[in-house]
Every structure is written in structure tokens, then in C-alpha cells.
Here is the input.
Amino acid sequence: MSEVSQGRGKGGVFLYLSPLSSLLGGVAALLNGVGTLAIIGLMVLINTDIGGRALLNAPVRGVPEMVSLSIVGIVFLQLGHTLRKGRLTRSEALSNFLGKRSPRLSAFLDGVFNLTGLALLGILAYSSWPLFVKSWEGEIFVGSIGDFTAPVWPIKLIIVVGSTVTAIQFFEAALRSLYGAFSGNIPDRSAPSPEENSA
Here is the structure.
């Protein structure tokens, strides 16, 4: 993703939004860290299961269920940080072409892209909340009773939280992109963002 869509505009209203942006970045980074730890835990679990099967003929129970749940959770834990760092998969051919010839139009299209992402993730978060409540109140589990069971509400909650954080990140990016499109204050694509400089 281009730096325009992340829109590191300077001055104006963004001076007041900077603390909120930093807070959002901190939350996204925290969720990303939890997702990374979950990946490590998943690798350990899978290798333990393989070792148990091969060496002791004693596999770890519930590995398929835990893997299927964890993958979904990891995606939503890391989605907001992926977007914030400009690493969300997208085609940039048109954006790069316009960025050289009409930066303001390119920034406007990035704003539309980010608003679309805001709408989609907002709908996802809104529609996922009842599913979380249902799984919490109904005590919904996966697995087989007597063998292995795991509640699904933690994953439903992660989907809600991850979608919400990503939607807010899309909103911030849309504000910056549209501000750049209408004001002409468009960041240099080749310049690293302040977050990258501090990384």
C-alpha cells in the first residue's frame, strides 16, 4: 500500500489526532504481538502432536480444532497492524500511475479505498457481535464431548475486536488520504513514515 493511503499529513487537525493515532497504533501493535505469540504456540502444538504420534503413538487431543480456530484468530489479531504498516495486499498499478501524474486524484482514490474498507470491516464487526454473544451465552463448543472440547467465544471476540480496530484504522487512513486530496498536502511516497523511522 502506498504511503498516500496511510496519509501521514502534517499540521492542521492531525496535530490534535496524533495522540489518538499513537494509541491506535499501540493497540494494533499489541494485537499483532499476541498474534505472533499465537503463531509460535501453534507451531509448538503441531510439532508436539507430530512427535507424540511418531514416537509415543499418543497424539495431542484437539489439535485440528485448535488449529482451525487459531488461524482465524491470528488473521484478525494481525489485520489492523498489517493495514497500518501499509502491507495489506492490493494492486497498486493504477495508484502508482496516477501518483506520478495526478497525486491528488490518487490520494482521493486511496480515500475511497479506505472508506470501502471501513464500511466492510464495520459491517463485519457489527454482524459478528451477535455471534459472540450467542457463543458466550449458549456456551458453544467445538470438538467431541468426552474427547476434547473448546469454547468458540474467544475467537468470536477476537473477530469483533480485530474488525473494530481495523475499521478505525481504515477511518484514520481515509481521513488522511482525503485531506491530502483536497488540500494538496500529500506525503512523499518515497519518504518513510514516522512509524518506520522509529521502528
